[in-house]
Amino acid sequence: MGSNLMTPMLGIDITPGLHLQWHIFGLTINADIVWATLIAGAVVIALGLTLRAKATSGVPGKFQLLWELAVGAIQTQVDDSIGPRGANVVPLALTLFIFIFTCNLFEVLSIGSPIDFLPAPTSDINLPLAMALYVIVLVHRAAIKNRGVKGYFLHYATQPFPAKAFPINLFMNVIEELVKPVTLTLRLFGNLFAGGLMLSLLTALVIWKLGPVPIGGILSVPFTLLWKTFDMAIGAIQAFIFALLTILYFDTAMAQDGAH
What's the whole-model pTM score? Predict the structure, then answer.
């Protein structure tokens, strides 16, 4: 994905969404997104292995306590939404939260250049879309397991209105199912992509206004740090929202018809 924003007043090209690319068998692959995703995955695995090595049934250390707080928060949300039947959703939601938050933290390493060698993988639409589709497939699998194949299809024809209104039910439910992965994808991607764009704009501001000033480059540091701090908070919130929506989608899939 690439775009070019030309600001006449600044005379500066801002080119967000550029990537180092591989061309394999006619396919274009964003190489920086691939290795950033692999690094984020390795970080999550390393955190899990570290936790297993340090886990104790006695007084937990700070690292274990942090994990237990995260697990407790997800567990509480699942219990409140789905109940005991949602126990299998906890590891998925927790993993998604930790992985997405790790990916989002890469945004802190960005310097506002056209190409970052370690970009936030979630700022490229391909990763959020892949995760969203993966979640939706699991949600439909849970719905089939809960209602059976016949009940799964009947649900779309008989809910939320009586069976006589099945064309309306079918239309509304199909639209809802199509919107779910789009919502998951665009919310995460849009916020992270906007963060990178804002950092590029801050860099352009330095060139435009602060560049001629003898200490202009230094003056830009507080602005950049302030934005990165705000961006970290947004990254944490978006990771939580993605995990929360995953839980809510499973809640709908695993509930009996008429329960919502």
Answer: 0.80
